[in-house]
């Protein structure tokens, strides 16, 4: 029994010795793995976050003496050690970096997570001074400046962006995220009036003569022309009949006197609505086709607009100041400015038959155009264009040779006088408006009742009722109300 106990004790001792030797062999490697420590800076208790203004410096007072400093990005942050416990940090470029401070034993004293960005305190103070009613917050991302908040008008947002761009030095580094508190809507009423006055006076003589001279009979007629209006030149037509007998002359004259007065009125009163900073257009007229090119026998057509057109872009500067960029045009089709393509009749060389070729006439335009930029209060009016044009044409035409004879030459010539005056006026009135309810709006067809057959045939009425009746005061209850009274 004792012998078995001794053998078991010896066996356990051998196993324990083997385990001890194996443990001793493995201990150095495990100890080396446990000694590796990775310090990311921001994870340690000695880490701090520092926001450093660009091109400015801060002073760091260390709790104990430092012998070594490590800067991760020296191009963005520079460190200067004046003493063992005082360090100067300078922001060189917008961005991020970190700094480690070690003592003489290599122990970490401090870790700084540094963010270098622009100092916006001066810009924030300047914006509050220039625009006290605006609620603007200035943020930065690296070298960029972000404007957030709200302003009264779009012009305030533009001014804030301009101030920030000059403060930073580069407009590309400014991001405008400002919102407009009041989306101002502008209604523009325009009155376009054009008056054309035309006066035409014509005076001429038409004559005919029948004469017998021995054996000849002479039948002559002439017509005076009015070339100022584009008619052909008049002349003398004569027929000679021989073997006539008889006496002298039968002479007839007819005087032509013509006077014309004309007046044309062109009136347009468009009303446009647009948000501040947005454009709106209007056209009352039409379009006509104009060929602009040809490819493989296919003619390309482009349509040109004519009539009364208006375009404007309002910018609300303040509660009572509106900046308007206005383009106004009055155009009409004019045959005087037309262009004709093609020729008349051609002869076929084979058959000798005439062939009529196609003729294309492209009309022209008479245009009165004006572009203005004005500044008006809400409800204020201004005549932005006034054009007075006068054309006078005078022509004296007659039969060559005879029209220059004294006294009698009056019978062989005509006089024409044309005076045309055109006056154009454009008046604009902007208003700051707000949406309303449908109950406050009416349309031209509201209240229209067509006539009955008797009204249409007997009376000749075009409508039985037209227009809205005036709205009176709303009827109200008299006496106590709001409760059921017994």
From TrEMBL:
Pfam families: BON, Secretin, T2SS-T3SS_pil_N. GO terms for cellular component: type II protein secretion system complex. The keyword Signal applies. InterPro entries: Bact_Secretion_Sys_Channel, BON_dom, GspD/PilQ, T2SS-T3SS_pil_N, T2SS/T3SS_dom. The keyword Signal applies. Keywords: Signal. One of its GO terms (biological process) is protein secretion. PROSITE patterns: BON. It comes from the Bacteria. Residues 112-182 form the BON domain. Residues 1-23 form the signal peptide. Belongs to the bacterial secretin family. This is Pilus assembly protein CpaC. It comes from Aquisalinus flavus.
């Amino acid at each position: 029994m004792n012998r078995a106990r001794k053998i078991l004790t010896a066996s356990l001792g051998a196993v324990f010795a083997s385990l001890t030797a194996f443990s001793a062999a493995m201990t150095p490697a495990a100890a080396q793995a446990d000694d590796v420590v990775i310090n990311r800076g921001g994870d340690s208790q000695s880490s701090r976050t520092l926001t450093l203004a660009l091109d400015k410096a801060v002073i760091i007072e260390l709790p104990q003496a430092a012998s070594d400093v490590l800067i991760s990005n020296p191009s963005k942050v520079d460190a200067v050690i004046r003493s063992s416990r005082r360090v100067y940090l300078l922001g060189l470029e917008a961005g991020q970096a970190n700094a480690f401070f070690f003592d003489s034993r290599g122990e970490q004293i401090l870790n700084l997570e540094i963010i270098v960005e622009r100092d916006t305190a001066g810009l924030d103070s300047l914006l509050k001074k220039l625009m006290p009613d605006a609620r603007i917050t200035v943020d930065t991302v690296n070298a960029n400046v972000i404007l957030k908040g709200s302003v009264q008008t779009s012009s305030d947002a533009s001014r804030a962006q301009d101030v920030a761009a000059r403060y930073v030095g580069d407009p590309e580094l400014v991001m405008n995220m400002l919102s407009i508190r009041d989306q101002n809507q502008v209604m523009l009423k325009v009155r376009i009036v054009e008056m054309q006055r035309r006066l035409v006076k014509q005076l001429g003589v038409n004559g005919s003569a029948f004469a017998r001279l021995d054996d000849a009979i002479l039948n002559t007629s002439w017509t005076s022309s009015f070339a100022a209006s584009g008619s052909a030149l008049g002349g003398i037509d004569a027929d000679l009949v021989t073997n006539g007998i008889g006496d002298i002359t039968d002479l007839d004259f007819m005087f032509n006197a013509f006077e014309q007065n004309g007046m044309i009125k062109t009136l347009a009163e468009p009303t446009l609505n647009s948000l501040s900073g947005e454009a709106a257009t209007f056209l009352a007229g039409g379009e006509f086709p104009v060929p602009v090119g040809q490819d493989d026998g296919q003619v390309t057509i482009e349509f040109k607009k004519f009539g009364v057109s208006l375009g404007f872009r309002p910018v609300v500067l303040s509660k009572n100041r509106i900046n308007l960029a206005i383009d106004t045009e009055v155009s009409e089709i004019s045959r005087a400015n037309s262009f004709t393509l093609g020729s008349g009749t051609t002869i076929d060389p084979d058959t000798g038959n005439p062939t009529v070729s196609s003729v294309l006439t492209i009309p022209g335009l008479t245009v009165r155009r004006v572009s203005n930029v004005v500044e008006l209060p809400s409800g204020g009016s201004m005549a932005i264009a006034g054009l007075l044009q006068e054309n006078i044409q005078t022509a004296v035409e007659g039969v060559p040779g005879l029209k220059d004879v004294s006294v009698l030459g009056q019978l062989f010539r005509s006089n024409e006088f044309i005076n045309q005056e055109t006056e154009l006026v454009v008046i604009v009135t902007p208003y700051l408006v707000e949406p309303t309810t449908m109950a406050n709006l009416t349309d031209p067809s509201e209240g229209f009742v067509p006539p009955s057959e008797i009204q249409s045939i007997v009376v000749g009425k075009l409508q039985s009722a037209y227009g809205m009746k005036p709205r009176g005061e709303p009827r109200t209850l008299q006496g106590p109300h709001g409760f059921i009274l017994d």
